[in-house]
Amino acid sequence: MSRFTVHVAVHLRDGIADPQGATIERALPALGFDDVSGVRSGKAFWLDVDAESPEAAAARADELCRRFLTNPVIESATVTVLS
Amino acid sequence: MTARVGVVLFPGTNCEHDVAAALAALGGEPVLVWHGERSLGDVDAVVLPGGFAHGDYLRPGAIARFSPVMGAVQAFAAAGGPVVGICNGFQVLTEAGLLPGALQKNAGLAFLCAPAPLIVASSASVLTGGLPVGTELTIPVNHFEGNYTVDDPAALESLHVVLRYAANPNGSMGDIAGVANAAGNVVGLMPHPERACDPLVGRPDGAVLLAALLTAAGSGAVAGGRAALAG
Fold first, then answer.
1. Most-buried pick from A53, B131, B136, B154 (CB within 10 A)?
2. B62 to chain A, closest Cα gap in Å
3. Could you report the per-residue pLDDT of B92-104, keeping only the tens digit for each?
4. What pLDDT is attached to residue B1?
5. Which of A71, A74, A75, A76 to mutate to test the interface with B (most CBs of B within 10 A)?
6. CB spacing of B150 vs A73 below 8 angstroms
7. How far apart (Å, rounded) are the C-alpha atoms in residues B22 and B203?
8. Taking a C-beta distance cutoff of 8 angstroms, is the pair B178, B191 a contact?
């Protein structure tokens, strides 16, 4: 058993409106960032997972995402094992 | 028979006393139920009131749906018992899978606190029973995350919508202010009917909905709300 640090990025699923991202993007030209577009909002979590392998740690984090960290109606997540 | 209505109190709920006072004024018997209870006791209906259950951490309703009382709420709903979620309570019901969809941040990221003109879209729910489709009501909204969203826009057609906004304030798909399950015994809505029950603060249109709930819960206390509206 080892301890793996897992990064979870939660984002809105494709096609789901993103009011936060849209509002940030609208503010960008006034701040001089008119070369930046396609802003999408989300949230991130860092977890320590005890598991036999990086794959098992990722699978455990996936399960946590499905049950709790995301609302599957509107969100999905990208799980990355960092170490 | 007086209808006993369980009013569920999560840590961070803040509308429980308004809901209880409104139900009592209409002849119901409200009973506060702590979220840590595994039983609802002997109730005829359940209300999940507004507020910030568990601080709204992660997402509104995301933690509340794991509260011990939610098992009893699930069972009560499955048995056909009337369950109504108001505002944060609506968010809890969607997170718990008792109602379809999700409530996103408002379009434009505006926190809304204003009277909302509404139109009844279905009479086949415990909150709108006896109200003709097309009935206009004005009831306040007070939320940041009331933007009703479903993952498949085609699924909008099959939803049991009970209330629509006459002027969409928050970007909700289909102007949806309230939805029910197919049977109509589980209803969620963003507007706060308990805040529109006293003529002192405007039209008592919310009393119409809560009176319908008491009727559905088997109470004889029917017409208070409707009489108030007519007056």
1. B131
2. 7
3. 999 999 999 999 9
4. 72
5. A71
6. yes
7. 14
8. yes
Query: Amino acid letter at A78?
Result: T
Among B224, B95, B227, B90, CA closest to B163: B90
Helix (H) or strand (E) holding B12, with range, is none
For residues B9 and B7, what is the distance between their CA atoms, to the nearest angstrom?
Answer: 6
| In chain B, residues 59-118 whose CB comes closer than 8 Å to chain A | 59, 62, 94-95, 100-102, 104-109
Contacts of A42 in chain B (CB under 8 A): none
Q: At what angle do helices B16-25 and B205-216 cross, to 10 degrees?
A: 80
Residue B184 class from Cβ within 10 Å (0-12 exposed, 13-18 middle, 19+ buried)?
buried
Q: Please list the residues that pair with A8 across neighbouring strands.
A: A45, A79
Residue of B104, B149, B179 to mutate when probing chain A, most A C-beta within 10 A = B104
How big is the CA angle at A74 (ends B72 and B48), to the nearest 5 degrees?
30
> Are A74 and B147 a contacting pair at CB < 8 A?
no
Secondary structure of residue B81 in the 3-state scheme: coil
- Of all helices (H) and strands (E), which one includes residue A75? strand A75-81
For residue B197, count other CB atoms closer than 10 A to its CB: 29
User: What is the β-pairing status of strands B112-120 and B102-104?
Assistant: unpaired
Q: How far apart are CA A58 and CA A49, in angstroms?
A: 9
Count of Cβ atoms closer than 10 Å to residue B7 Cβ? 25
> What tokens does B8 get?
């569920």
State the burial class of residue B83 (Cβ atoms within 10 Å of its Cβ: 0-12, 13-18, 19+): buried
Contacts of A15 in chain B (CB under 8 A): 151
B23-79 pLDDT, tens per residue?
Answer: 999 999 999 999 999 999 999 999 999 999 999 999 999 999 999 999 999 999 999
The CA distance from B146 to B91, in Å, is: 8
